[in-house]
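Q: Okay, next protein. This is 3'(2'),5'-bisphosphate nucleotidase CysQ from Rhizobium grahamii. I've checked the sequence twice, so it should be correct. Can you predict the 3D structure?
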Amino acid sequence: MTDVDTALWRSDLELIADAARQAGRVALGYFNQSPEVWWKNEGRSPVSAADFAANQKLESLLRAARPDYGWLSEETDDDAERLSRETLFIIDPIDGTRAFLAGLDLWCVSVAVVRHGRPVAGVLYAPALDELYEAVAGGVALKNGRPITVSTASVDTPGRFAIAEDVLATFPERHKHRIERVKYVPSLAYRIAMVADGRIEGTFIKHNSHDWDLAAADLILERAGGQLVDLHGGAPLYNRARVSHDELCAAAAPRLADLLNGIGERRGS
């Protein structure tokens, strides 16, 4: 990565942080106001007027500022043209729509700049909590302007994990006693941010997460000293024809190895 690249990504980070804040303010105007709701994915997933309004704000700001970048958003019809772009924005205007509609604070605007399949700038903004997470390739992860790092708790002590009860039930007993389940966190991106700032030691992510859930949080976690990987230890790639992912784990390195071992043993591998 050259100095020119670093300067560009920092400029992009400033751009997306400002855009995320503006979109967050738009979404906050609908919060606890019973916005109109529709259902997608064969009735499995809600989408609200707030999602569309925040998406529109992001699209108007970002595409005007970087017309040569591609675009992938949960709330914009996908266009395969993005696959020809080296650099693109990956957007979730509201990650945690169910929480948003339920009046819970744990939802966020997720914005990433991805180049050649990996994030180089990422922002998560949680408007109801007034929390801004940000990171740029080669830099440090920040929360409201202050550096954050993953937990350094010993792997020999019980760790706090966001993991589904049915998944934990399949783990070998010697792994279960080192895992303390935390209360369900409805926003996947925010859950990964909680790993990045050390509030929890890790999380297990079931299959069918999407690029827009992960890309910004992935970089923030990486720059905070953690990793988001598949069950073979590989980092996810973004801006592929298939935008969904198989099972993933996020944690600091020693915890990640232990979590992957437990998953491997439950699978009999």
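A: Here is a summary of the prediction. The domain at 3-147 is CATH 3.30.540.10 (Fructose-1,6-Bisphosphatase; Chain A, domain 1). The mean pLDDT is 94.
Q: Noted. On to the next one.
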